[in-house]
Amino acid sequence: MDKIKKWIPSFFLLPLCIYLCLHRGEYTLIDNADLVIHEAGHLFFFIFGHFIYTAGGTLMQMLLPSLIIWYFFRNSYRFGTQVSLLWLGQNLINISVYAADAQAQKLPLLGGDHVYHDWAYMLGALNMLPYDAYVSDFFFGLAIIVFILLVIVCPLIFVE
User: Fold this and answer.
1) What range defines the domain where residue 108 resides?
2) Quick one: which of 10, 48, 86, 116 could link to 52 by a disulfide (CB 3.0–4.6 Å)?
3) Euclidean distance between CA atoms 2 and 105, whole angstroms
4) φ, ψ for residue 26 (rounded to 5)?
5) Residue 40 has what pLDDT?
6) What's the number of domains the chain is made of?
7) pLDDT tens, position by position, 82-124
């Protein structure tokens, strides 16, 4: 019975992972928190220059969930690790949507016409703007890997 019990969180989290992948780019309630974290990242990284300041929103969207994953993992709390991985994967999907919009710039931005598109600026500065779809696919692929970790790997590595 204990061998089955450790898979119960994965059973309930897998449909959420699938939902997030199939509804990529659709607004969810957690996006409000993610937006605040993204904007806080710009403030946090402003001292490192314009490029890192711009990347700071995306960096914070990955850094904060990763720190929480590390905390739960270090304290052997499997379910907390899994939920935090779900959050990281969801953020990676959001990042993939934002990166995919770098050329088109159709997404509404906080601040309207008075702000610039983070990914358009970053990819433009790196002469990679024509490759925004590939960058987007990279982040979406990372999200899928994170979801695999939370659904399959977590129950295997945590010892009850």
Assistant:
1) 55-160
2) 48
3) 50
4) -90, 145
5) 97
6) 1
7) 999 999 999 999 999 999 999 999 998 887 777 899 999 999 9
